Amino acid sequence: MVTINTNYEKLKGNYLFSEIAGRVAAYAKEHPDQKIIRLGIGDVTQPLVPAVVQALKKAAQEMGTPEGFRGYGPEQGYAFLRETIAKQDYENRGCDIDADEIFISDGAKGDVGNIQEIFGQDNLVAVCDPVYPVYVDTNVMAGRTGDFNLRTGGYDRVLYMPCTRENGFIPQLPDRTPDLIYLCFPNNPTGAAISKEALQQWVDYANQNGSVILYDAAYEAYITQEGICHSIYECSGAKTCAIEMRSFSKNAGFTGLRLGFTVVPKELVRQGVSLRKLWGRRHGTKYNGAPYIVQRAGEAVYSKEGKAQLKAQIAVYQENARIIREGLTQAGYTVYGGVNAPYLWMETPRGVTSWQFFDQLLKQVQVVGTPGEGFGAHGEGYFRLTAFGTLENTKEALERIRRM
Ligand code: PLP
After folding, report:
1. How many whole angstroms from 366 Cα to the centroid of ligand 1?
2. Which of 25, 184, 270, 360 is the most buried (most CB within 10 A)?
3. Measured between alpha carbons, how far is 366 from 358 in angstroms, rounded to an integer?
4. Does CATH number 3.10.20.280 belong to domain 6-47+305-403?
């Protein structure tokens, strides 16, 4: 008889965004004439920049010629892209990362979800609370989390690190030592960024305790302030304790094109085994490489024209973030984030839960955001808005919220 992976039955309720989509669809069906503005899901709205489109076209044409056609590419990614990343994202920031330590993929979500496969079943996993749900759910699926506990609003065997207004949404070093530590900065959902000093403390802690930090830097392009690391490898000693994940989704609008990468340094060894070799084995067994044309498009992101065009594109989202932050503050709300991140984390009005606030915004002014509770127990009392809308919609949404 076929049995199923019963760990899936432990997943908490509906995936957050399906629940939101369901509520929005039901409302839209009843009110077909109303314009709903979505500042909930973190998808981008601006088109690909010309440098990327040109690279895609050129690569597609190459593939249509006998000389330029390429079949399966290297599983780890083409050297032209890995070398460009090593130089521009790392060497130029003073980090010593070799092209051999970079694994190209079709995006960060797959990588942050799959990375747990190279670790043993009994590792203690630490996550921030609130958290990007993928870190927890993929460990639930793998049977590493214990049961969901209705009383605590979390899984019994996961170490939740509260991120609150009191600690500036930066987790404190835990009393109990975790094995795997998921960190994401600039953070989704709180929009908080971590200073170099604070990140260095985590690196030192991980090295002292033999933990591994899984560092998700999907939003590094949104950092505007000095003293904040774009990569964890800017901290000394990070190569012996950290794996870093990056995405082209939010810095170059590749959410539909799909491209990302993971860095596993050669120095990262546990139980005498190289984690780079383990990840290489996993990647090569289950993944056949990102498309050639998309990797060429990724290379164009680092070209002179690409960089200039993307700087302008990100500036539009940063301006949206400023509009939301200032508008909500003027309207009397307390708002965090939005300075080094495309996410705004606002406090819900006193006595209003995050799902109640979601329903109020949807029904009264037809604006969709994301209830903080969906990201973890410590997200209750908060609401996430994203800066990825169009300028026009962002302004209109703000006007409507202020009227409310
Ligand atoms: N990591 C974080 C923290 C995210 O918020 C997201 C997307 O929303 C991802 C990873 C996924 O990135 P990608 O589109 O590259 O899969």
Report:
1. 26
2. 184
3. 10
4. no
